[in-house]
Amino acid sequence: MSCRLLAQVVYLQAQATKQQSRKSSSNTPMLPISRVSQSYADDLESLFYMFIYICIKYSSPHGEERQEPAKDPPHEILPDSWMTLDLNACKLKKVYFLAVSSEEACIINQSHPYFANLIPLVKEWCTLLKYNMEIQVTFDSILDMLEHHLAALPEGISLFSSTKENLKKFAVGLNDLVKHLKHIAKRESSIRTESPISMHLANLKRKRAEAEDESG
């Protein structure tokens, strides 16, 4: 879960706790809690955490779990530190991870050697997400980053080359999806502009202008 989503849920939980305590001492009904607002930027950040989980917890692209657990004393293993029911603690740990540059060393030390060539990708992705709570990261910036690092991956190992090709296909497919979503958004915007209400108002405005011209 992204830092922004965690912050919202933590806030709503605190509000619900306050309302529940008030309800227990009076008959005042609880106020409705607003729903959490989620965007594509939250999904891109969540995808980043999943990517880190794979780099640290697995040892190959075929779902082979790491035999020897990652060790990085005195630091806690990143995915383990985020798996807590204390959402506020989880939020603070993720915010700290993204904000403090020295935390990048944890990625290097904890990732399995198989994924060593992906460390530069993880570090740049982390940089893009530093301000995701205020300035949301875009699909285009993530796609550009993926394409840049995929092109830089070394050749020579058939297994790795096939993995690279699959990742490239995924990036292309994701890029096509983004373009499709943009097209849909543009079309929906056009439909809203030409809605029956807007067309009716435009007709009234036109008729009023014609009437004024005739009277003048």
Notes on the structure:
By secondary structure, the chain is mainly alpha-helical. It has a domain at 3-132. 68% of the residues lie in helices and 0% in strands. The chain has nine helices and no strands. Helix 1 (3-25) runs antiparallel to helix 4 (87-99). The N and C termini lie far apart (64 Å). The mean pLDDT is 75.
Name its key features:
216 residues; mainly alpha; flat
- List low-confidence stretches: none
The helicity comes to 55-70%
Number of strands: 0
Based on secondary structure, the structural category is: mainly alpha
Strand content: under 5%
Write a brief caption for the model.
With 216 residues, the protein is an all-alpha fold.
List the helices and strands and how they pair.
Blueprint: H1 3-25, H2 40-57, H3 78-82, H4 87-99, H5 104-110, H6 119-128, H7 139-152, H8 158-193, H9 196-215
